[in-house]
Amino acid sequence: MKRLEGKTALITGAARGIGFEIAEVFAAEGACVAIGDLSHEEARTAAAAITAKTGAKAIAIGMDVSKEEDCETAVAETEKAFGKIDILVNNAGITRDNLVLRMKAADFEAVMDVNLKGAFLMAKAAAKPMLKARTGRIINISSVVGQAGQAGQANYSASKAGLIGLTKSLAREFAPRHVLVNAVAPGFIRTRMTEGLKDEAKLKISEMIPLGRMGEPAEVAKAALFLAGGDSAYITGQVLSVNGGLYM
Ligand SMILES: NC(=O)c1ccc[n+]([C@@H]2O[C@H](COP(=O)([O-])OP(=O)(O)OC[C@H]3O[C@@H](n4cnc5c(N)ncnc54)[C@H](O)[C@@H]3O)[C@@H](O)[C@H]2O)c1
User: Which CATH number goes with the domain that contains 142?
Assistant: First the structure.
């Protein structure tokens, strides 16, 4: 039996990268998936590719996670298409890197708005039906940078550390209704977000990683699958690091 048979999932920022991989793995395990993304067009292409590959139902939702109304509509569209929402993955994220003295307040706010406030708004919208159903899973995609800090990423690091606090608070608040909330903290993963790094920087990063290489989106997706499925029924408020040993 597939691990997410009969389940429905909404994954934000799933038009590409880690989010796309999570949606594809969930679909391959039997879930109906809603692909939420800023780009409705890319979300549509992603949903069609997932259905073609897995045969699972997939819908595309154009949305901005930093807007409360969009978050509520995304949950409503998921429920309308699939009848319910069992799993939410807060994956949408952006970077606006700079050294602190050069970082504009607007760049700090933009990153917090998407990475942290977006996850709060989505969790709030999805929790309503989940708490009512007395079951659900929320998975927040944090980062090793939120655990260890990173020069040049004060905004991103603060947002990702904030996600860990949010995860633990939601976990405590929702546990009585069996809604489990956990975070995945990826290390350096090969996606468009890290594509811009210079080869020299990539080599330096790989040398710092005990497993000696960057990670693949599929390796993060498998951790999310574990937290979404029946094998993690007694796990809530935790941070699962997928970083090749970079941070222990
Ligand atoms: N790539 C890495 O090394 C790495 C490491 C740790 C954590 N992460 C986290 O994993 C998540 C996915 O990263 P990725 O590398 O796949 O990034 P990516 O840039 O390839 O994909 C991010 C997706 O999010 C969407 N998005 C951006 N802003 C949005 C918004 N306001 N509303 C809805 N969708 C929005 C984008 O359109 C894009 O499709 C992010 O939260 C990121 O911070 C990535």
Answer: 3.40.50.720
